[in-house]
Amino acid sequence: MGKTILVVDDSASMRQVVSMALKGGGFEVIEACDGKDALAKLMGQKVHLVISDVNMPNMDGITFVREMKKNAAYRFVPVIMLTTEGNEEKKKAGQEAGAKAWVVKPFQPQQMLAAVSRLLMM
Protein backbone atom coordinates (compact mmCIF):
# COMPACT_ATOMS: atom_id res chain seq x y z
CA MET A 1 0.00 0.00 0.00
CA GLY A 2 1.48 3.33 -1.07
CA LYS A 3 1.49 6.40 1.11
CA THR A 4 -1.53 8.69 0.93
CA ILE A 5 -1.23 12.39 0.18
CA LEU A 6 -4.00 14.95 0.54
CA VAL A 7 -3.88 17.63 -2.18
CA VAL A 8 -5.79 20.82 -1.38
CA ASP A 9 -6.21 23.44 -4.11
CA ASP A 10 -9.18 25.41 -5.42
CA SER A 11 -7.89 24.98 -8.97
CA ALA A 12 -9.01 21.65 -10.47
CA SER A 13 -6.25 21.80 -13.09
CA MET A 14 -3.61 22.36 -10.39
CA ARG A 15 -4.99 19.41 -8.38
CA GLN A 16 -4.79 17.32 -11.52
CA VAL A 17 -1.16 18.25 -12.25
CA VAL A 18 -0.12 17.55 -8.65
CA SER A 19 -2.12 14.29 -8.52
CA MET A 20 -0.58 13.04 -11.75
CA ALA A 21 2.93 13.77 -10.49
CA LEU A 22 2.21 12.02 -7.17
CA LYS A 23 0.48 9.00 -8.70
CA GLY A 24 3.45 8.73 -11.08
CA GLY A 25 5.61 8.56 -7.95
CA GLY A 26 3.49 5.70 -6.59
CA PHE A 27 1.37 7.64 -4.10
CA GLU A 28 -2.35 7.43 -3.36
CA VAL A 29 -4.05 10.83 -3.66
CA ILE A 30 -7.08 12.39 -1.99
CA GLU A 31 -8.18 15.72 -3.50
CA ALA A 32 -9.94 18.60 -1.76
CA CYS A 33 -11.01 21.96 -3.20
CA ASP A 34 -10.42 24.14 -0.10
CA GLY A 35 -9.57 23.95 3.59
CA LYS A 36 -13.11 23.11 4.72
CA ASP A 37 -13.39 20.31 2.17
CA ALA A 38 -9.93 19.07 3.21
CA LEU A 39 -10.87 18.91 6.92
CA ALA A 40 -14.03 16.98 6.04
CA LYS A 41 -12.05 14.51 3.89
CA LEU A 42 -9.35 14.04 6.53
CA MET A 43 -11.61 12.76 9.27
CA GLY A 44 -10.59 9.21 10.04
CA GLN A 45 -8.32 8.96 6.99
CA LYS A 46 -4.70 7.95 7.36
CA VAL A 47 -2.77 10.64 5.50
CA HIS A 48 1.03 10.68 5.32
CA LEU A 49 1.48 14.16 3.86
CA VAL A 50 -0.54 17.21 2.86
CA ILE A 51 0.11 19.54 -0.08
CA SER A 52 -1.97 22.68 0.21
CA ASP A 53 -2.46 25.89 -1.71
CA VAL A 54 -2.40 29.05 0.41
CA ASN A 55 -5.05 31.29 -1.17
CA MET A 56 -8.42 29.50 -1.39
CA PRO A 57 -12.08 30.41 -0.79
CA ASN A 58 -13.96 29.17 2.33
CA MET A 59 -10.80 28.36 4.26
CA ASP A 60 -7.28 29.30 3.20
CA GLY A 61 -4.34 26.91 3.42
CA ILE A 62 -2.73 28.39 6.52
CA THR A 63 -5.98 28.29 8.51
CA PHE A 64 -6.54 24.73 7.29
CA VAL A 65 -3.07 23.63 8.46
CA ARG A 66 -3.66 25.23 11.88
CA GLU A 67 -7.02 23.46 12.19
CA MET A 68 -5.61 20.13 11.03
CA LYS A 69 -2.72 20.32 13.53
CA LYS A 70 -5.20 20.77 16.42
CA ASN A 71 -6.25 17.17 15.81
CA ALA A 72 -3.81 14.83 17.56
CA ALA A 73 -4.07 12.29 14.73
CA TYR A 74 -2.66 14.82 12.24
CA ARG A 75 -0.34 16.84 14.47
CA PHE A 76 2.79 15.32 12.94
CA VAL A 77 1.65 15.05 9.32
CA PRO A 78 4.15 17.02 7.20
CA VAL A 79 2.71 19.83 5.08
CA ILE A 80 3.99 21.37 1.86
CA MET A 81 2.47 24.72 0.96
CA LEU A 82 2.13 25.03 -2.82
CA THR A 83 1.51 28.58 -3.88
CA THR A 84 2.15 31.52 -6.17
CA GLU A 85 2.82 33.40 -2.92
CA GLY A 86 6.52 34.21 -2.45
CA ASN A 87 5.66 36.61 0.38
CA GLU A 88 7.96 36.18 3.41
CA GLU A 89 5.21 37.00 5.91
CA LYS A 90 2.91 34.36 4.42
CA LYS A 91 5.82 31.93 4.49
CA LYS A 92 6.46 32.67 8.15
CA ALA A 93 2.74 32.24 8.93
CA GLY A 94 2.80 28.94 7.05
CA GLN A 95 5.82 27.72 9.01
CA GLU A 96 4.26 28.79 12.29
CA ALA A 97 1.10 26.90 11.34
CA GLY A 98 3.25 23.82 10.76
CA ALA A 99 4.22 23.81 7.07
CA LYS A 100 7.55 22.05 6.51
CA ALA A 101 8.18 23.14 2.92
CA TRP A 102 7.15 25.88 0.52
CA VAL A 103 6.94 25.12 -3.20
CA VAL A 104 6.23 28.04 -5.50
CA LYS A 105 4.00 27.60 -8.58
CA PRO A 106 4.69 26.93 -11.35
CA PHE A 107 6.70 23.96 -10.08
CA GLN A 108 8.48 21.04 -11.71
CA PRO A 109 6.90 17.66 -10.85
CA GLN A 110 10.39 16.34 -10.00
CA GLN A 111 10.88 19.23 -7.56
CA MET A 112 7.55 18.39 -5.91
CA LEU A 113 8.38 14.67 -5.66
CA ALA A 114 11.81 15.47 -4.22
CA ALA A 115 10.20 17.62 -1.49
CA VAL A 116 7.63 14.88 -0.81
CA SER A 117 10.29 12.16 -0.57
CA ARG A 118 12.42 14.33 1.73
CA LEU A 119 9.52 14.90 4.12
CA LEU A 120 8.36 11.29 4.11
CA MET A 121 11.87 10.09 5.05
CA MET A 122 11.56 11.85 8.41
From TrEMBL:
One example of a Gene Ontology biological process annotation: phosphorelay signal transduction system
UniProtKB keywords: Phosphoprotein, Receptor
Domain annotation Response regulatory: ranges: 4-120
Sites of 4-aspartylphosphate modification: 53
Organism: Candidatus Accumulibacter phosphatis
Protein name (Swiss-Prot/TrEMBL): Chemotaxis regulator-transmits chemoreceptor signals to flagelllar motor components CheY
Highest taxon of the lineage: Bacteria
InterPro entries named in the record: Bact_response_regulator, CheY-like_superfamily, Sig_transdc_resp-reg_receiver
